[in-house]
Amino acid sequence: MTTLPRPTTTLTADDARRIALRAQGLLGAPDRRAGVRGVLRHLGAVQLDTISVLARSHELVPYARLGAVGRKAVEAAYWTDAHAFEYWSHAACVLPIEEWPHFAFRRRAYRDRPHWHHELPDGAYDQVIKQLRAEGPLTATELGGAKKTNDWWDWSGTKVAVERALMYGEVVCVERRGWKRVYDLAERAVPATLLHDELDDSECLRRLVRLAGESLGVGTRADIADYHRLKAEQVDAVIADSGLVPVEVEGWGKPAWADPAALATPPRGRHRTTLLSPFDSLIWERARTERLFGFTHRLEAYVPRPKRVHGYFAMPVLAGGRLVGRVDPAREGRTLVAKQVTLDGPKAVPAVAQALVEAAAWVSCTDVRVERVDASELREPLHRELAGLLG
């Protein structure tokens, strides 16, 4: 059994919350000069998801930190000049290109994997590599077809092959085009200085544990493991040498570790008021969100409609360093529709109204319509606040 070092620093729950907010780029002035690429490097991973209601999640994440950054600029920042690649981290994520070497442990694990959900037809893998080498970046459709039928998971042999090559690291997703992955050979897409830097598993894991600690500010072992979906034993094996320091957080009841730089200065500055994607790294882990904010959140997009409580894509509202409500958004022409709004009391009304109006402007909507407010007595105050902001 591993003996954990005794913490020398004790943090209050509020200390931990503010440290986490600053680490996530949501407390203090944003670094606008570094832009979207700076956000990506600061967070270490930006999750991708197919759902697009207000915008896609990988657009919502930099918006939450920088404000109304152009949506085309977001895509360009990720994909031009080999600044990023897509791979399996917390889930399918955009990752800074310089972290390519540190996912070597996962590429090796995939190569050694004994079981796959899809059979790989003979010759399909070599054919995909040959075609990419000859023709350059291609989607699965351009390679010969992504699916055998209309069923989501009924992949063609070509799709099985190119996804296997992606997991192995011989192929890289270099952008999303109409939400389709665009594949290219790693030897072309990854800078040569990074491509062949195959670190051993311990070096990879130390780096990812350190990155997770820096991106979280402070976290439990489970928090740190979840960030890049590591196993608990992988974290345990390297955390003592990761550079993170043990701390005690009042009320957490579990060992925690912090980024030393996060402890060096008190977290101060302006709080962002914004809608958050459910896949935002501030809140993507439910137990941590409850521990930090006393806020229970569940993505209900895959819950049958009659069983939904807060809506299809309910987005938490961040204001003053707290989660003060939820908005389930939609768009109808130039109108942002708040299909369902949940407010944490009257004090949340101005913040939720501000978040709605700013988000509407970002997606080129000129009006906001509220359909339902869970607390009926707050419906009129919210309407008045929105009317004042919209003029």
Give a short summary of the structure:
39% of the residues lie in helices and 18% in strands. The protein is α+β, with helices and mostly antiparallel strands.
Question: How would you sum up this structure, described in words?
Answer:
Helix content is 39%, strand content 18%. The chain has 17 helices and 14 strands. The chain has 391 residues and is α+β, with helices and mostly antiparallel strands. The strands form four sheets. It has a five-stranded mixed beta sheet with strand order 10-11-12-13-14, with helices on both faces. It has a four-stranded mixed beta sheet with strand order 1-8-9-7. A three-stranded antiparallel beta sheet has the order 2-4-3.
Give the key terms:
391 residues; alpha+beta; 5-stranded mixed sheet; 4-stranded mixed sheet; 14 strands
